[in-house]
Design a protein that fits this description.
The protein has 151 residues and is of the alpha/beta class. It contains six helices and six strands. A six-stranded mixed sheet has the order 2-1-3-4-5-6, with helices on both faces.
Amino acid sequence: MTPNKIITAFVSYSHEVEDTEFCRLLCDELEKHGVHAWTDRRQLRIGEKFAAPIAEAIEVSDAFLVVRSPHAVSSTYVNREIQHALECARRDGKPQVYPLLLRSCDIPVEIRELTWGDFRSEFERPFRLLLASLRGEHADMESSRPVSGSR
């Protein structure tokens, strides 16, 4: 990413309470560090149709952050968003997909070979690594591991 460019990140997550609370903290911290975080609850109004705005937001984002948890595994919406992000990335070269593991769960085959941020036991260190990755910087990847299957 270019240093002065505003990074836009679409955040895909389950609407279960724990996932939503994590997403809120993640987005607040991203915004504090100059990353525009797009979520349905922040950008959509009550009564608004959501499928087209979500698809468009994924298409124009630089990054697609997918928060993985057992609830996300069973979410039809999260799984559709992953598929759309991967299709856009293959077709357009963006968004870059960043899997974030909130709680141990199955990892979709399509993203197993990506390095993921491990937020299962702490927030600060994996957040710093994510922020560096979003900015195109290298960081000590000790708390991130390639996804090799179920965790």
